[in-house]
C-alpha cells in the first residue's frame, strides 16, 4: 500500500527532525543548524548539492547564499520557481572550514538522502557538483557525465556543475546554463 501524501509529508518531517539532532559523524559538534532540505513532495526536480555553507548553517535552509541566488536565477531562466523544486544536499551539516565533505559524513547522511528520495518522489534529480554525483551515482568526476540524462533505478538524473563553480568560471557557467535548458525540456 502506498502511503498517502499526508503520510509521506509526516514521514519526511520525521526524517528532517532526525537530521536536526543527528550525531552520526563529527560535524554536529561545529554546526549551528543541520540543513535537511526543503520543498514540495512530488516536485518536478529534486536538486542535490554538496553540503551547507555558512549562511545555510546559520539559518538551517539550503542554498540561500550566493550559490543559492545563482541557482534561483537559473531556475527562473527556465520557468521554474524555488517553490516548484525540492533542494537538499549530500551532507546535512556544514563541513569543517567549508571543505569538501569527508566520506564518513557522506556515509552518515546517505540514509537521510535515500529516505528523502523515497518520500519526495521527484520526476527528475539534478546533481549539483562532484560530491552529489559521487554520492548518488558513484562517479568520481562530473566532467564525463554532466549534461547527459542518466537512467538509474527509477530515476532520471542530470548531473551538472555546482552553482558556486558556475558562478566563478565562465565555461562552467555556460555549461551549467546549457544543462538547465536540457533540464527544462525534460520536466
UniProtKB/TrEMBL annotation:
Single Gene Ontology MF annotation: uracil DNA N-glycosylase activity
InterPro entries membership: UDG_Type-4/5, Ura-DNA_glyco_family4, Uracil-DNA_glycosylase-like, Uracil-DNA_glycosylase-like_sf
One Pfam family this sequence matches: UDG
Top-level taxon in the UniProt lineage: Bacteria
GO biological process, one term: DNA repair
EC number(s) on file: 3.2.2.27
Ranges where the Uracil-DNA glycosylase-like domain occurs: 36-181
Catalysed conversion reaction: Hydrolyzes single-stranded DNA or mismatched double-stranded DNA and polynucleotides, releasing free uracil
Alphabetical UniProt keywords: 4Fe-4S, DNA damage, DNA repair, Hydrolase, Iron, Iron-sulfur, Metal-binding
UniProt record similarity statement: Belongs to the uracil-DNA glycosylase (UDG) superfamily. Type 4 (UDGa) family.
Alphabetical list of PANTHER family matching this protein: TYPE-4 URACIL-DNA GLYCOSYLASE, TYPE-5 URACIL-DNA GLYCOSYLASE
Protein name stated in the entry: Type-4 uracil-DNA glycosylase
Amino acid at each position: 500500500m502506498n502511503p498517502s501524501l499526508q503520510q509521506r509529508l509526516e514521514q519526511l518531517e520525521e526524517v528532517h527532525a532526525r537530521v536536526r539532532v543527528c550525531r552520526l559523524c563529527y560535524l554536529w559538534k561545529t554546526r549551528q543548524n543541520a540543513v535537511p532540505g526543503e520543498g514540495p513532495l512530488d516536485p518536478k526536480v529534486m536538486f542535490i548539492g554538496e553540503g551547507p555553507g555558512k549562511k545555510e548553517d546559520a539559518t538551517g535552509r539550503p542554498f540561500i547564499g550566493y550559490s543559492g541566488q545563482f541557482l534561483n536565477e537559473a531556475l527562473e531562466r527556465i520557468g521554474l520557481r524555488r517553490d516548484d523544486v525540492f533542494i537538499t544536499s549530500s551532507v546535512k551539516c556544514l563541513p569543517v572550514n567549508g571543505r569538501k565533505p569527508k566520506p564518513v559524513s557522506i556515509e552518515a547522511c546517505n540514509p537521510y538522502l535515500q529516505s528523502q528520495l523515497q518520500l519526495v518522489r521527484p520526476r527528475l534529480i539534478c546533481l549539483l557538483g562532484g560530491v552529489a554525483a559521487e554520492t548518488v551515482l558513484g562517479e568520481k568526476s562530473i566532467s564525463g557525465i554532466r549534461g547527459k540524462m542518466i537512467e538509474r533505478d527509477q530515476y532520471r538524473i542530470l548531473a551538472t556543475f555546482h552553482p558556486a563553480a558556475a558562478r566563478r568560471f565562465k565555461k562552467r557557467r555556460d555549461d551549467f546554463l546549457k544543462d538547465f535548458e536540457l533540464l527544462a525540456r525534460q520536466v
